Amino acid sequence: MKKIVVTGANGQLGKCLRDVASNFPQFDNHFVDRAVLNIDDPGSVSEFFESNQFDICINTAAYTNVEKAESEQEAAFKTNAEGVKNLAKACSAQGTTLIHISTDYVFDGTKQTPYKEADAVNPINAYGASKLQGEEHIQDICEQFFILRTSWLYSQYGHNFLNSMLRFAAEGRDLTITTEQVGAPTNANDLAEAIYTMIESGKEDYGLYHFSNLGRATWYDFAEAIFKCSGQLESVKLAKTAHYSTFAKRPAFSILDTRKFSETFQFELKPWDQSLCDLIENHKK
Ligand SMILES: NC(=O)c1ccc[n+]([C@@H]2O[C@H](COP(=O)([O-])OP(=O)(O)OC[C@H]3O[C@@H](n4cnc5c(N)ncnc54)[C@H](OP(=O)(O)O)[C@@H]3O)[C@@H](O)[C@H]2O)c1
């Protein structure tokens, strides 16, 4: 039985992986949060992997606050670059396959067609730069790794755009949402399903992959779709803006070309708006 450990288990993707794992009883799944395994601490990371022989580590632990990362660069790099290096070293030493989640923010957004895995990276914010350094450490240290870059993650869990929009609407707030960036909202439940499907395939086609839901949207489109699916479009005060000022720059275009993932692992990706409505419907029930 393959033994799997999921780091950052209390984050939104960690929670989605826990839900999905129950559909894969052929694996021995372990979920560890920061209190059990702080990836920033090299000593505890190597000790943890020496005393537990895992076949696979799914790393969802990350510093994820894109805005704060601009003023807290040290903390962002400590986890997203050095913490990932600690994991890469421990996994490599124990022959553990590392599945790591990265981001569309490694790109600068100047391309007009979907980004492929081999396209040049050029992060334009501190979060993206820290995540890119993490990717580079894995590629330098590990032989058995999968890096999945994803975009605009949301789910029923935690702080994300979907939950913020629903909360703001419930509070009767006026919502002015930007049309500046184009990306693919991605349901973290779909990503969790994809990760387990990838493991189940047993394929050893290690390397870099792009994973997102299909189609493209601005943040305004995403908000509008949320309210359409939740039946609140008529009642909510929603407006668009071409400029929304933030500390962190964001790529204007960050659609990922996901064909390598879907073809390698025979995984059918869902359109982003369908997956969003499915999630909202399921949670209404
Ligand atoms: N959210 C997005 O839009 C998005 C987009 C593209 C890629 N990604 C990537 O997808 C992955 C999952 O993101 P998510 O949305 O699930 O993030 P999340 O909800 O913020 O979860 C991240 C988890 O990592 C934990 N963590 C932070 N530092 C840690 C450390 N040093 N040691 C152990 N655990 C630590 C956090 O614990 P605490 O709660 O204790 O801080 C949190 O539970 C991340 O790699 C992220 O970079 C996210």
Q: Can you summarize this structure?
A:
This protein has 285 residues and is an alpha/beta fold.
Q: Please report the first level of CATH classification, the CATH class of the domain at 3-155 and 186-213 and 256-269.
A: Alpha Beta
Based on the structure, what is the oligomeric state of the protein chains? single chain
Q: What general outline do the C-alpha atoms trace? A: globular
The order of strands across the largest sheet is 2-1-3-4-5-9
CATH superfamily of the domain at 3-155 and 186-213 and 256-269: NAD(P)-binding Rossmann-like Domain
Task: Using the CA coordinates, give the radius of gyration.
Answer: 19 Å
**SS field, number of helical segments:** 9
Gross CATH architecture of the domain at 3-155 and 186-213 and 256-269 = 3-Layer(aba) Sandwich
**Largest sheet, described in full?**
6 strands, parallel
The assigned structural class equals alpha/beta
Number of strand elements: 10
Which bin fits the share of residues in helices? 25-40%
The N- and C-terminal alpha carbons lie at a distance of 35 Å
Low-confidence parts, pLDDT < 50 over ≥5 residues? none
Residue share in β-strands: 15-25%
The averaged pLDDT comes out at 97
